Amino acid sequence: MIRVVEGDAGDIAALMTIMDDAFDPAYGEAWTASQCLSALVLPDCQLLLARTDDDVCGFALSRWVLDHEELLMIGVARRFQRQNIGKLLLSETVVRARCAGRTKIFLEVRDGNNARDFYLKSGFNSIGRRKNYYKNATGLSPDAITMALDLQY
Questions:
Q1: Right CATH number for 3-150 from 4.10.800.10, 3.40.630.30, 3.20.20.100, 3.90.550.10?
Q2: What is the pLDDT of residues 84-122, one digit of tens each?
Q3: Predicted structure pTM score
């Protein structure tokens, strides 16, 4: 059974194992351990971990400012993908954001990333584009699509 628990900077090794497995280095989307630690020491950052009895199989990292939440990334280990773990992590992020009084969740996703369809099916709308935002290993610079989910009823 998969359960979602809060994580912290002490979970950096598990987080980086998922990060290295889930994100293709060709796209330059993965964060380094120091980037993750820099975020996790801030009081406005939340790390959720999807755990089996033995393993961390996924994570969601978000932060908030006032009444808005920003989903920084969701990652699921390849061997656990297509088992609704990303959906579970996103759902828990949304529930916690609503309980905390957030009115919207924002995120950015690389243009061409299949995750965009996942977010659209989850109720997010595309609201903008950042040209040439990502810098990848091939020298291409794909755009970032900005998306938002309204949490107000």
A1: 3.40.630.30
A2: 999 999 999 999 999 999 999 999 999 888 899 999 999
A3: 0.91
